[in-house]
């Protein structure tokens, strides 16, 4: 039984619906059949009673005058009606005298005049006993147990004085096919109703079950980690199920956003940790480095004659300078004071990059939406622009266009660079802003790290995206108070 | 005295002329009995209209199932003419005048047929029907009552006790139906009705079988009420006798299954009279 309740709605809804429909139809059909039996029986009772009374009344005068022909004509008349008449046709009608002998019968060949009906057969003998025992004025249908016929016995009497009995005989063989016809009609109506309702029920069940099944499947996917909302239009109606779908969509969406946010936070924290670590290391290295370079300068000044020593010192100096450059590159200091970023800075960046672009025949499309300086340190913004555009130039295929747009909107400076280079892989995207991570062989992988550090220190955001074959970097920087 | 005489003559003339005028507008009343299939409405209505055209006056048909009722109507002068059975004609001879006798198969005679259901293969005469149910036509019918009783009497049987049960069906046709349905084991019927029904209702005659035929009796006659005026009598007689002379009359005779009518003679009914005397019904 439990397995029945565990069935999919796909089967359960039509199954239960079907069971209900079949039960209801059976009940209605049974009621129709029972009704048809009752109708038939009451038809029989009312028709035979009214027929019996009418005949008995007219039969009285014929019998009292012993007019055999007249009596014969009276009891034959109802039998001449068409057999397709709605009422059940009597099989035979008998007029009996006071001693239950046949005065006249509608079928004289089988039941001749003056026959004692007790001698006809057992059923008639029992009927005769009943007639003798209950000579009452009203005689409804007599249904003898196990008999092949129904009988309606009406006294032929006047003011209670009985002259004889009129017996109307109905064959059950005639009665039953009529009942069967009624029953068949009931059953046929039932089948017709089933033939119409069951497919509708099945269709309706499928319609109701399918969205539920889609929802259940989708929920299962979410549980397994795939945050996919059900395809739009799975259930386009505004009922409870529709609202459930909407809520579910919202839930999946917010889950998705939450996951993205978590990932972003982890990445930011990692970058911050790396930032702190590298800044700490850089400071620790910078302090002795400064001393070492000063000591080397002093040493060169005092012992500058020896050629071999000079060479060694020069090697040391170059090495230390390289260390200092690297370390200072990692030591981003946004607190540098300077002038504000102005539109002409953008032109400077173009000039600085023109040579690089010319080598690869790349066109730089600079779109400047600035008309006046903005309250951001020009050095840092220029560095951001240079880093992003250099990266773009390196990534871009030859003879392509690298575009860059700078705008002010909603109190933010927005920078957007676009190139048509190779897409950034998902793995690379995860570690994009970490130091020493590079998309190509040439760079040392500090450009984006420095950019990220600058942007974060300026309180802005940076994001990269590859879409439709184009790689985009978007930077937003909140514009502070003017430094000018 | 003279005046009264003149007045009397005038009065008589007046009475005569009104009677004459009345004669033309008052209908001729004709009684029909089951001696022939009198319950067929359509051909008889054609016959009535035919009579009206020939007589130039209205004609009324009065149908009664029982001979005695028609005889009563004749006696009460409620009928001018009637087509009755030969037995009541002989029995009530003083109240009626013979008008015309139908001719069937070229002769003014008919017979009584003894019939049984077609399923009865053994009965050869009325003597095989002892203690059976027998259907008579009418107590004033010759072929349907008197003739079979005469047969029994001739055979030495008592007609009143011979059968188990007898009943009157009140027409030859119903005797045939009683026998055909098995209500009666046997019956007596006019040969003319049998012949007519064997043409019109062959399904009825097929269900029965003629076992025996009686000797000839004068055909059931057309009679006039005894006080009918001579003119009326002659007109009516002429009409019947001349039916063979026009197309419509012949067609009507064909439907009645008759050749025509003849003046007839009392002597035609001497045999009937002898039978009545023999059976002692008179």
Set out the fold topology.
The complex is a heterodimer of chains A (484) and B (282).
Chain A: H1 2-5, H2 9-64, H3 68-76, E1 92-97, E2 102-105, H4 122-133, E3 141-142, E4 149-158, E5 161-171, H5 172-223, H6 240-302, H7 307-330, E6 340-341, H8 343-359, E7 363-368, E8 374-377, H9 378-395, E9 401-409, E10 412-419, H10 426-430, H11 447-457, E11 461-467, E12 470-478
Parallel strand pairs in A: 7-9
Antiparallel strand pairs in A: 1-2, 1-5, 3-4, 4-5, 6-8, 9-10, 10-12, 11-12
Chain B: H1 2-25, E1 28-32, H2 41-55, E2 59-63, H3 67-75, E3 81-83, H4 86-91, E4 96-103, E5 109-110, E6 112-117, E7 133-136, H5 142-154, H6 159-162, E8 165-168, H7 172-181, E9 186-190, H8 191-200, H9 202-206, E10 208-213, E11 217-218, E12 222-225, H10 230-241, H11 247-255, E13 260-262, H12 270-279
Parallel strand pairs in B: 1-2, 1-3, 7-8, 7-9
Antiparallel strand pairs in B: 3-12, 4-12, 4-13, 5-11, 6-9, 6-10
Helix pairs in contact in B: 2-11, 5-12
Describe the protein in words.
The complex is a heterodimer of chains A (484) and B (282). Chain A has 484 residues and is α+β, with helices and mostly antiparallel strands. Chain A folds into three domains: 2-180, PAS domain (Beta-Lactamase), CATH 3.30.450.20; 265-330; 340-478, Histidine kinase-like ATPase, C-terminal domain (Heat Shock Protein 90, 2-Layer Sandwich), CATH 3.30.565. Helices cover 56% and strands 16% of the residues of chain A. The longest helix of chain A is centred in the middle third of the chain and has 63 residues, at 240-302. In chain A, 23% of the residues are buried. Chain B is of the alpha/beta class and 282 residues long. Chain B has two domains: 2-108 and 218-279, D-Maltodextrin-Binding Protein, domain 2 (3-Layer(aba) Sandwich), CATH 3.40.190; 112-214, Periplasmic binding protein-like II (D-Maltodextrin-Binding Protein, domain 2, 3-Layer(aba) Sandwich). Helices cover 45% and strands 20% of the residues of chain B. Chain B has twelve helices and 13 strands. A six-stranded mixed β-sheet of chain B has the order 2-1-3-12-4-13. In chain B, helix 2 links the parallel strand 1 and strand 2. The model of chain B is unreliable at 14-21 (pLDDT under 50). At the A-B interface, helix 3 of A face strand 8 and helix 7 of B.
């Amino acid at each position: 039984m439990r397995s029945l309740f565990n069935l999919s709605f796909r089967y359960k809804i039509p199954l239960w619906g079907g069971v209900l429909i079949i039960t209801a139809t059976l009940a209605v059909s049974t009621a129709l059949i029972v009704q048809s039996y009752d109708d038939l029986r009451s038809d029989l009772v009312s028709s035979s009673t009214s027929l019996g009374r009418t005949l008995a009344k007219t039969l009285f005068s014929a019998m009292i005058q012993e007019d055999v022909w007249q009596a014969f004509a009276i009891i034959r008349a109802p039998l001449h009606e068409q057999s397709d008449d709605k009422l059940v046709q009597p099989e035979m009608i008998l007029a009996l005298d006071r001693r239950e002998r046949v005065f006249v019968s509608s079928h004289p060949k089988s039941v001749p005049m003056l026959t004692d009906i007790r001698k006809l057969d057992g059923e008639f003998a029992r009927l005769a006993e009943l007639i003798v025992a209950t000579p009452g004025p009203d005689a409804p249908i007599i249904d003898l147990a196990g008999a092949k016929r129904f009988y309606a016995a009406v006294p032929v009497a006047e003011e209670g004085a009985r002259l004889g009995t009129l017996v109307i005989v109905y064959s059950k063989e005639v009665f039953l096919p009529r009942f069967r016809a009624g029953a068949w009609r009931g059953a046929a109506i039932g089948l017709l109703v089933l033939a119409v309702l069951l497919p509708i029920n099945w269709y309706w069940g499928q319609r109701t079950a399918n969205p539920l099944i889609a929802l259940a499947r989708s929920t299962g996917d979410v549980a397994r980690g795939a945050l996919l909302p059900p395809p739009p239009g799975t259930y386009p109606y505004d009922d409870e199920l529709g609202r459930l779908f909407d809520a579910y969509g919202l839930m999946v969406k917010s889950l998705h956003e939450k996951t993205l946010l978590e990932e972003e936070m982890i990445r930011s924290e990692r970058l911050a940790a790396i930032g702190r670590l590298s800044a700490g290391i850089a400071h620790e290295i910078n302090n002795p480095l400064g001393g070492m370079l000063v000591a080397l300068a002093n040493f060169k000044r005092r012992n500058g004659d020896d050629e071999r020593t000079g060479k060694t010192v020069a090697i040391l100096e170059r090495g230390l300078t390289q260390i200092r450059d690297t370390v200072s590159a990692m030591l981003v200091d946004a607190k540098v004071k300077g002038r504000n970023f102005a539109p002409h800075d953008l032109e400077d960046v173009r000039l600085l990059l023109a040579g690089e672009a010319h080598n690869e025949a790349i066109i730089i499309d600079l779109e400047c939406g600035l008309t006046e300086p903005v309250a951001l340190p020009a050095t840092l913004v220029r560095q951001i622009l240079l880093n992003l555009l250099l990266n773009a130039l390196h990534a871009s295929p030859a003879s392509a266009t690298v575009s860059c747009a700078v705008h002010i909107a909603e109190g933010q400076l927005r920078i957007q660079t676009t190139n048509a280079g190779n897409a950034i892989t998902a793995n690379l995207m995860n570690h994009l802003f970490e130091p020493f991570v590079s998309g190509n062989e040439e760079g040392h992988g500090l450009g984006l790290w420095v950019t990220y550090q600058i942007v974060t220190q300026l309180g802005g955001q940076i994001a990269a995206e590859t879409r439709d074959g184009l790689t985009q970097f978007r930077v937003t920087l909140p514009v502070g108070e003017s430094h000018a | 005295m003279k005046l009264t005489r003149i007045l009397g003559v005038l009065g008589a003339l007046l009475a005569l002329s009104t009677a004459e005028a009345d004669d033309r507008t008052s209908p001729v009343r004709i009684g029909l009995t089951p001696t022939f299939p009198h319950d067929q409405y359509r051909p008889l209505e054609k016959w009535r209209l035919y009579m009206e055209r020939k007589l130039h006056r209205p004609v009324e048909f009065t149908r009664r199932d029982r001979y005695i009722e028609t005889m009563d109507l004749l006696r009460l002068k409620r009928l001018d003419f009637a087509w009755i059975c030969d037995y009541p004609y002989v029995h009530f001879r003083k109240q009626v005048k013979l008008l015309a006798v139908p001719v069937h198969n070229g002769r003014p005679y008919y017979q009584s047929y003894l019939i049984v259901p077609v399923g009865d293969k053994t009965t050869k005469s009325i003597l095989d029907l002892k203690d059976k149910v027998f259907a008579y036509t009418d107590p004033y019918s010759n072929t349907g009552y008197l003739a079979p009783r005469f047969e029994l009497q001739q055979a030495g049987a008592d007609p009143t006790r011979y059968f188990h049960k007898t009943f009157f069906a009140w027409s030859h046709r119903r005797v045939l139906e009683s026998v055909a349905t098995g209500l009666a084991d046997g019956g007596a019927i006019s040969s003319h009705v049998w012949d007519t029904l064997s043409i019109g209702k062959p399904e009825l005659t097929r269900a029965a079988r003629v076992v025996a035929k009686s000797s000839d009796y004068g055909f059931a006659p057309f009679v006039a009420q005894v006080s009918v005026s001579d003119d009326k009598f002659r007109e009516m007689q002429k009409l019947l006798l001349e039916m063979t002379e026009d197309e419509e009359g012949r067609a009507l005779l064909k439907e009645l299954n008759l050749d025509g009518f003849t003046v007839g003679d009392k002597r035609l009914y001497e045999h009937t009279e002898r039978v009545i005397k023999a059976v002692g019904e008179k």
